[in-house]
């Protein structure tokens, strides 16, 4: 049976989080009746980490002997992915109910080049991460620009729609979009790779779609040894 979606999960020294991510994807495939494959990528995390990841028995494993950064890991996973619909995800993400289906529905629109979910920080779903990429968020911290940025963020959280940029924790796109604009620029090892890629998507005349109906929990605080519950 061919896969309807390939989910590329990129790991670096966060095997425990990757295990939760893979489990949530398998639950989503079963619950939402999606024929999917998981492509698990590791960026030179060491033999102990690789053994832990191998025990997860992903559909495809790409264990890189060098750390090519998030962009390089994502590209290596995309090379192995087989489906026409693609999702690239941080390892420290848990997919909540309906998230995958909502993202796939969004990129079913041929005018949409990429889609991203609403990212929650805490288990209770009270803390929402910015709807724009990190570059957009930090670029708008000046007093003159913050108010319109905040209004736009609230709009995207509540209603979704087209955005200038999307957060890069999870990005969904069709294979034809990557074929058209290229993969991630590996000069950006960590951060901004999604921003530069999204600029190319928009330059190609395609839209970036923020999908609040798709919700994930982004556990970056856990992998950084911080507890968002406290």
* Average pLDDT rating: 89
Strand content: 15-25%
Computed structural class: alpha/beta
Give the SSE string.
EHEHEHEEHEHHEEHHEH
Shape: globular
Q: How is the main sheet built?
A: 5 strands, mixed
Oligomer: single chain
Q: Over all CA atoms, what is the radius of gyration? A: 17 Å
Spans of at least 5 consecutive residues with low confidence? 221-230
Strand order of the largest sheet: 3-2-1-4-8
CATH fold naming? Spore Coat Polysaccharide Biosynthesis Protein SpsA, Chain A
Q: What top-tier CATH class fits best? A: Alpha Beta
Compute the separation of the termini in Å.
45 Å
Give me the CATH superfamily. Answer: Spore Coat Polysaccharide Biosynthesis Protein SpsA, Chain A
Percent helix among the residues? 25-40%
Count the helices. How many? 9
Count of domains:
1
Q: What would CATH call the architecture?
A: Alpha-Beta Complex
| Number of DSSP strand runs | 9
Notable traits:
230 residues, Spore Coat Polysaccharide Biosynthesis Protein SpsA, Chain A, 5-stranded mixed sheet, 4-stranded mixed sheet, 9 helices, globular
Q: What report would you give on this structure?
A:
The chain has nine helices and nine strands. It is 39% helix and 25% strand. The chain has a five-stranded mixed β-sheet, with helices on both faces. Strands 5, 6, 7 and 9 form a four-stranded mixed β-sheet that branches. Strand 1 (5-11), helix 1 and strand 2 form a beta-alpha-beta unit. The chain is globular, with a radius of gyration of 17 Å. Helix 1 runs parallel beside helix 2. It is of the alpha/beta class. It has one domain (5-223): Spore Coat Polysaccharide Biosynthesis Protein SpsA, Chain A.
């Amino acid at each position: 049976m061919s896969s309807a979606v390939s989910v590329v999960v990129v790991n670096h020294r966060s095997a425990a989080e990757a295990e939760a991510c893979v489990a949530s994807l398998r639950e989503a495939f079963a619950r939402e009746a999606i024929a999917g494959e998981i492509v698990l990528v590791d960026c030179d995390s060491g033999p102990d980490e690789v053994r832990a990841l191998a025990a997860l028995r992903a559909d495809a494993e790409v264990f890189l002997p060098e750390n090519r950064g998030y962009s390089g890991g994502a590209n290596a996973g995309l090379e192995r992915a087989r489906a026409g619909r693609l999702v690239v995800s941080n390892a420290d993400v848990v997919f909540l109910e309906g998230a995958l289906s909502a993202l796939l529905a969004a990129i079913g629109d041929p005018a949409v080049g990429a889609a991203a979910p609403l990212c929650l920080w805490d288990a209770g779903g009270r803390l929402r991460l910015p709807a724009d990429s990190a570059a957009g968020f930090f670029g708008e911290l000046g007093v003159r620009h913050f108010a319109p940025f905040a209004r736009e963020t609230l709009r995207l959280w509540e209603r979704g729609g087209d955005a200038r940029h999307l957060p890069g924790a999870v990005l969904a796109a069709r294979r034809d979009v990557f074929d058209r604009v290229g993969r991630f620029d590996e000069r950006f090892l960590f951060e901004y790779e999604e921003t530069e890629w999204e600029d190319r998507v928009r330059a190609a005349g395609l839209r970036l779609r923020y999908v609040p109906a798709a919700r994930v929990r982004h556990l970056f605080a856990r992998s950084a040894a911080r507890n968002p519950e406290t």
